[in-house]
Amino acid sequence: MDKIKIQFVLNGETRQVEVEPDLLLIDLLRERLGLTGTKVGCGEGDCGACTVLLNGKNVNSCLLLAARVNGCEVVTVEGLGSYDKLHPLQEAFIAEGAVQCGFCTPGMLLSAKSLLDVNARPTREEIARHIAGNLCRCTGYTKIINAIEKVACADRHCACSREAEEGR
Amino acid sequence: MSEFKVVGQSVPKADALDKVIGRAKFAADISFPGMLYAKALRSPVAHGILQHIDYSAAAALPGVAAVLTGKDVPGANNFGIIIKDEPVIVKNGEKIRKIGDTLALVAAENEAIAEQALALIKVDIEELTPVLCPIAAMQPDAPKIYDKGNVLAVRKIVKGDTEAGFRDSAVVVQQQYKTQMVEHAYIEPEAGIALFDGDVVTMWVSTQNPHYDAKEVARNLNIGLNKVRVIQAATGGGFGGKLDVSVQVHLAMLAVVTRRPVRMVYSRTESIKNSVKRHPYTITMKTGADANGRLTAFECTIIGDTGAYASYGPGTLTRSAVHATGPYEIPNVKITAYTVYTNNPQAGAMRGFGVPQVAFAHEAQMDMLAEKVGISPLEIRLLNALRPGSLTATGQYLEQSVGIVSTLEAAAAKVREIKLERRGGRL
Predict the structure, then answer these.
(1) A103 contacts chain B (CB < 8 A)
(2) DSSP type of residue B293
């Protein structure tokens, strides 16, 4: 099979790679580029462990051909934050006890980011609906939703954040 | 009051930072230069005898580094947490006891070649009638899954005189309960990677039981325990299901034979087909009470389907027998629990370990008894709950720390609070 040359922005950096036409995005990320933060839980789009952001939207990288991301922007958990500078969602997941086995965590974080980027103050129901494609088999959903809600509320226009500042 | 740094404080989970950053290394995240990819050929039938296996075409396929069959297992060729009844690879002429039994292993340069090689292996299996129901498996004329018979273990608990107890009962409830097989479905499928460095096998595995794994590897490779090093990688859920051996012995064999790093990662389908399950139960329960609702007698028979291999079956059924009366004091008790082999997927440890199944039954019994006696479900539970001074079904005298009464009272208070809120504060 002839390889296809693609160019895309991965975690803020422009990358040029040659891929087989049947190579999946998850395999490009994990096996070729060494970004193993993105996980494989089912390989068929059911569990969401392989979630990455494609042009800002949460997608299952196990269902996407790598060639499809030509010209796109991809963000994986490695691009979300670093040891020195955690993303607020990463901080909240740690503080709220939203990390158990940790296998769903990268996908959860990215799905949460894709929600907050378009809706800074979602309701609990909106959060739950948005992460419906990300399974947590430790069933730690309450704390995951708490963590996402905490970041949403940290937005200074949020009512609960104002209440906190006023010491109520 | 003393000041503690950890007790009573909210402490961040030790590995949470690595996990939110994506740096935590699960077994499938680890790789080494020159690594091979392993796949297993699994039995398509539930019960049979492996007559012949021809892997010449698979071994000749370019990119295949090794094909192993039962004859290549250097040691015991069996493993199991309580009873060593599960083969590492089924040998020619030996029994297949479930769909998914390993018939051959392949290590290749990539997963696609390994899959191709599996498709080239020809197996000849003499099919036997599968036994899929534990009650049928207990009948004398049932096909034998093991020469020793299909009933693996029987646990009996007898306290007092149940006949007299039922004679003195004002009400009796007898029911049969069936619970289903449950898959753990941990989000991370089984995975591991092994190296053979000098004369030591080192592996990183998704496991709950590295010390047990190391012993099974040593026994089956016929090497010293000091030549095996099992390291638990970050593990993506287990819930009891990763206490059993999955990839460990297979990886060790392939690493030793090929002298290259070998990685094996189950697909989700493979994980569901080959992992242990929660035991499906058939429970017959008879509970008697006097006219006030005080429990008088209890008889219970539990049949647990442990599938093709014992795993934690005998332990699970023992726990079920011990807890069958629930958190209630009953003077006359007779319990029999059977662990039965079938050709179903093997059942083992899963959250609660045999207790959730019997809880479903004894709590349903309590509700029905309460209705017959004419008291509330809460009243019958408070009346019969274990307290300090109670004797359990096994005759254990409870001296202290029995939380069921205070738990029921706290739950009842919460229910009253919620009901009050729903009525808008009006009583």
Answers:
(1) yes
(2) S
Give the Cβ contact number of residue B144 at 10 Å. Answer: 14
User: In chain A, what percentage of residues exceed pLDDT 90?
Assistant: 90
ipTM of this predicted structure? 0.93
pLDDT given for residue B89 in this prediction: 98
Residue B425's pLDDT is 65
Nearest residue to A112 (alpha-carbon basis) of A84, A133, A93, A131: A131
List the Cα angle A65/A71/A76 in 5-degree steps: 65
d(CA A62, CA A39): 9
With CB atoms and an 8 Å threshold, state whether B234 touches A81: no
Every domain of chain A with CATH number 3.10.20.30 lies at 4-79
Each residue of B316-330: pLDDT tens digit?
999 999 999 999 999
Residues of A in contact with B20 (CB under 8 A): 77, 81, 86, 90, 93-94, 99, 102, 105, 109
Q: What is the CATH number of domain A88-165?
A: 1.10.150.120
CATH 3.90.1170.50 maps onto chain B at: 35-128+185-274
Each residue's pLDDT tens digit, B109-118: 999 999 999 9
For the domain made up of B134-182+277-413, the CATH class stated in words is: alpha beta
Best of B9, B13, B20 to substitute, by most chain A Cβ atoms within 10 angstroms, is B20
Q: Is the pLDDT of residue A157 over 70?
A: no
Which residue of B lies nearest to A96 if distances are taken between CA atoms? B12
Tell me if A103 and B237 make a contact (CB, 8 A cut-off): yes
DSSP B109-164: SSHHHHHHHHHH-EEEEEE------HHHHTSTTSPPSSTT-SEEEEEEEEES-HHH
**A49-76 exposure pattern, b = at least 16 Cβ within 10 A, e = fewer:** bbbbbbeeebbbbbebbbbbbeebbbbb
Burial class (CB in 10 A: 0-12, 13-18, 19+), B247: buried
- Tell me the per-residue pLDDT of A126-156, one tens digit each, with 9 for 90 and over: 999 999 999 999 999 999 999 999 999 876 5
CATH superfamily of A4-79: Beta-grasp domain (3.10.20.30)
Domain B35-128+185-274 grouped into CATH 3.90.1170.50: yes
Q: Which residues of chain B have pLDDT under 70?
A: 1-2, 425-427
Per cent of chain A over pLDDT 70 is 92
Q: In what order do the strands lie in the sheet with B151-159?
A: B151-159, B332-341, B295-307, B281-289, B171-178
Task: Give CATH 1.10.150.120 domain extents, chain A.
Answer: 88-165
Instruction: State the pairing for strand pair B295-307/B228-232.
Output: unpaired
- Residue A167 confidence (pLDDT): 44
> Which segments of chain B belong to CATH 3.30.365.10?
134-182+277-413
Question: Given pLDDT bands bounded at 50, 70 and 90, which one contains residue A160?
Answer: low
